[in-house]
Amino acid sequence: MIYSELKIFEEILKITKEENLLLLACNGCAEVCKVSDDKSISEIEEKLKTNGKKIKRIIKIDFMCNKNLIVRKLSRFINDFSDNFGILVFSCGIGVQCVSNVIEKPIYPATNTIYLGGFQGLWPGEERCAECGMCYLGITGGICPITFCTKQLINGPCGGTNNGKCEIDSEKDCGWALIYEKLKRIEKLEILKEYQEPRNYKLCEPTGKIRKKIFYDVDKNEEL
Ligand code: SF4
Ligand code: SF4
Fold first, then answer.
1. Looking at domain 3-138+197-206, which of 3.30.70, 3.40.50, 2.60.120, 2.60.40 is its CATH number?
2. For the segment 129-168, what is each residue's pLDDT rounded down to a tens digit?
3. Tell me: the pLDDT tens digits for 60-70?
4. Going by CA atoms, what residue is nearest to atom 2 of ligand 2?
5. Dihedral angle of Cα 219, 140, 131, 30, to the nearest 10 degrees
6. Is the CB of 2 inside a 6 Å radius of any atom of ligand 1?
7. Cα 177 to ligand 2 centre (Å)
8. Residue 208: predicted pLDDT
9. Bigger pLDDT: 84 or 68?
10. How far apart are CA 222 and CA 5, in angstroms?
11. 128 CA distance to ligand 1 centroid (A)?
12. What are the extents of the domains in the chain?
């Protein structure tokens, strides 16, 4: 099982740029972690509405890591997807990437996938989540900068990109070249102007138990 926690609401509000939102919830691991159960979703839905968002629809999918299921379910609602429209996903990082791979719309994670220690099961798809504890998929068009960029950069490319390939491994696509192209296709390049605070590597540490949420105030250099 992949474990995830809900992001704080202020962050969800900050990353979701569009007025109209579709809420997409996974009935698999995410529901077991209580990040996609009815109570969590309705709490976030109410707060989003209070902050001027329009929730067009809430859709549940049994296993969001199954792209066929996502396509089958979303194709019924394709007429809902207007221009000013984003999708807020309640699942682990793999599920968010799967949604982003099957639909060219702005996708935002409502959760952070965290590391509890041990091994992750094998996954046949191209999506990879390193359980970094602070999901960045909302600022990268749904492409993970931790697993697709060799240096795990979160504020854009290193400068060594060569013809779309990584300077460390010329056989490998540069993660940030992929992110740039994706953001361009979904007309969200302006997100790249937003500065991301330095990563808190404490979020990657295994604890062997489910942690309290940890947030870090970089100005005060302390956990919140
Ligand atoms: S940014 Fe990548 S590694 Fe981190 S939680 Fe999201 S998908 Fe997983
Ligand atoms: S070339 Fe691209 S993928 Fe490779 S380290 Fe630099 S930004 Fe990351």
1. 3.40.50
2. 998 999 999 999 999 999 999 999 999 999 999 999 999 9
3. 999 888 899 99
4. 174
5. 110
6. no
7. 8
8. 43
9. 68
10. 20
11. 8
12. 3-138+197-206
**pTM check: above 0.85:** yes
Ligand 1 midpoint to CA 56 (Å): 26
Distance 84 CA to ligand 1 centre (A): 25
Indicate which atom in ligand 2 lies nearest the CA of residue 156.
7
Q: Is 122 exposed, middle or buried (0-12, 13-18, 19+ CB in 10 A)?
A: exposed
CB–CB of 204/146 below 8 Å? no
Which residue's structure tokens are 């969001």? Answer: 64
